[in-house]
């Protein structure tokens, strides 16, 4: 994974740092795992200072983000075989640009509604977190 250094002054938003675990560094984004065992849920965060909206990225960064969303989606598809993938960049609670990629199943706790606000997040146990991260990193390799 060819990692581009973050923009000067870039840092992961404190809420994302609290709610996620690092998986990998892509060319543009940090790939994080949401700490919610209810859903296989990845978050891509472009390392671009002050990026709030998609349009805050230049054209090359927008293209790269699209590639990285596709890569994260393919990993979730390969590892979990979901019925559906949800991809969203909302940013209503955390202003830093970030993209959610969530594997959804017809039998999941929120189906067919969005995952937000449907159930209390269930943090991974330490053992399950290690297994999940290892499995995702192996699929990325």
TrEMBL record:
Gene3D superfamilies: HIT-like. This is HIT family protein. It comes from the Bacteria. One of its GO terms (molecular function) is catalytic activity. Residues 42-111 form the HIT domain.
